[in-house]
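hey team, just a heads up i'm posting the complex here instead of the shared drive bc the drive is being weird again. everything in one block, sequence lines first with there labels, then the predicted structure for the whole assembly after. its two chains so it's a bit long, scroll down
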Amino acid sequence: MRFHLFRRYLRPALVALGLLAALFAAYVVYLDVTIREQFEGKRWALPARVYASPLELYPGRKLTPAQLAQELSELNYRHGALAEPGSYVRESDSIGLHTRGFVFWDGPQPPLRLRVRFEDGRIDEIVNRDTGEAVALARLDPLLIGGIYPAHNEDRVLVKLDEVPPILIKALIAVEDRKFYEHHGLDPRGIARALWANLRAAGAVQGGSTLTQQLVKNFYLTSERTLRRKATEAIMALLLEAHYGKDEILEAYINEIYLGQDGNRAIHGFGLAAQYYFDRPLHQLTLPQAALLVGLVKGPSYYDPRRHPQRALARRNLVLAEMAEQGVIGTAEHLRAKAEPLGVTERAPVGTSAYPAFLGLVQRQLRRDYSDADLRSEGLRIFTTLDPRTQRAAEEALAARLEALEKRRRMPAGTLEGAIVVTEAATGEVLALVGGRRARYEGFNRALDAVRPIGSLVKPALYLTALAQPERYTLATRLDDSPLVWSEPGVKEWAPQNYDKKFHGHVPLHRALAHSYNVAAARLGLELGVPAVLETMRRLGVERSLPAYGSTLLGAVGLTPFEVAQMYQTLAANGFRTPLRAIREVLTPDGVPLKRYSLTVSQAIDPAAAFLVTTALQEVVQSGTGTALHAYLPPALRVAGKTGTTDDLRDSWFAGFTGDKLAVVWIGRDDNQPTGLTGASGALTVWGRMMARLDPEPLEPPVPETIELVPIDAETGLRADRGCAGAVELPFVRGSAPTETAPCASGPGQSIRNWFRRLFER
Amino acid sequence: MRALPALALAAALAACARLPAPTPPETAPPPVASQNSAVVALVTSAREHASAGSLSTAAAELERALRIEPRNAALWHELARLRLHQGQPGQAAQFAQRSNTLAGNDARLRAANWRLIGQARTQSGDHAGAELAFEKAAELEREL
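-- predicted structure starts here --
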């Protein structure tokens, strides 16, 4: 009977139980694998951090106290006492600052207490306040300009536990999980307490979940609240605790917890939240700010400090009160913190980077050497060439000028678009990149991706090709600017026109370039041969393959602003090509040097020819198509530049350089409709406004040894001397200047002799 | 990093003056021609790093100096020397050429550049080209 019972009921029950247990064990193993994968995946996904170029401080540097103060405030240095790194004070003719320590490529720079004294718009002296010694060179910590994050809108500003202010951790534990360091993932007493509190309040007040449970819940982000879900979470929490230490779990929590929503972008982690709500790095949060973020854990949308400031304030003060009650903060501290306003910035900073266009360039240049996965997960530290001051000037100039141009031309606001590339003339480092007028927003990066006809910007390549043959062409060579019709097989007949719809007869080469005469240029280009001009462009650094049509000579070909910058860079660097670089160095997360992108140069163009073209480009601004620049910059800067305008005024370009900076500006419409702007009335004005703010160095190109200056009579293009009014000194490759003297030249006898000789030689 | 106090700098310069540079790749380096104390500090430090074998740190420092004084022909020459040291004769010659375009009538520096170009060409096996470069150097040295 008993046996029967056993057989009939107990055994199947046991078997069923065994099966259940086995199933449960298998389920736990499955959960274990899942949760560990999640945890490890998150833990190791450290995005690359991208830094701007650090501000170098040294005696003699052009910098005003106001400019330094602005840089410091951009870096979130606090104005006031110098007690801690990251603070500064303004004194009468100097600025005292306490720099933050930072690990650079060539080693760490510890925090320094400095006094920077100014005189006449320059740094006069830097003194170490602690030792009293003069400092030859110091640099500020570089501005963090963004990160390269995993896909699906999950932005992170990952932080290490030791970067988290201790007060925030204490607040978190005090409010969310008092027994965090004691429990094994679950806190039954916490649950009981929460239940009791909720019963009393007849509604959910306390969560009762441990930080570990909350972390698990965040990994899956479902709001499902079934018992089964709870049980699964509880098992996973226990498993996590079994595998990982408290600090590892806490660090993951701090980087994972959901703290807000910005459109379709979820704000995860305290690092990003600090930026999103307070626009400052986590380690700079004050006590009330930390308390607010901790308060948000409970309900980021309900307590949203921007939409519901009253609720948020009450919640923050509750957190502060709890901290005071548990003795985490003192009474005085509590009272002070309670009295503080919320301190949330009015509007959230857009995206994780304020420089999406530049970041796009960095990513492209990095992709040649690193896989996407490495960039998103290896925590690389990337040091770039971005100069925040130049970038600000470029963004401001573009936005302001486009608005003004639209107003003046009665175009609807937002019709015009533009792009800017600014580089350091000598080294090819990219100082600024603007991909559109709304520079803070990620979107079509026109600086890198808008391929637009370059119009007359092509001409320096054409004239370089000519001037590299000094035995055939000089700046004084007369070019023929009379009507021209060109036909070649397979292409429509081509009759280039000048912008003013006139023909100018015979004009000296330098003036043909300065005034951008199309017909003279086209005829010259055909003489030289289109392939020869294309070869020059290739040498200048244009890699795109271009069609060898006659119209190519007048810039019917499309290039991006970035490609144009590369082309002009070679001219600005005296004929030496340097690839435009946005990255200097890559370091591991621990500051170990990984890769350096070193400066390379290669002589691409004969320096003498480059010098001659540069002289003519200076004339463009002095007396040619670019004179409008003098409304922005003094003529003494001797800027070299070129305007570019395309058919029906669809594209407006200006490319040019000073002694230290090169910039290319493009203006046009995304729908490629006419803008009504020439290079001079559009892009040039942006260029001028931007450069005026950057206080550029005058352009004094070094004179190659093969160059001599010869006075030339403007009338005849022949050798002149003091006797000739209106003679200009032009540079020539030695031996290439005209040998014949102009009739006006001194000693009437000589000039008459020459005149006769010419008469007879004819 | 590198907030180099002037005192340490002076000491370093004095040390440089007394001690022969350990196995220089070519002729002894010319004095750092700059009025800018930051540039002098960087070049001094770069030379120390280069002799200690930290070539990429030296390169970073020289490029940093170049950002401060991009038209300083002596700095381009300094980088040319370093590139030769780094086993990049092609780049060494290019930097020396670049230095020459900025050297004006500094015959001493131009001669040094041509000598370096000669060495670079020798390293890359262009002996005829090297000979030409050495001749140019000698010619310039005669003018001194």
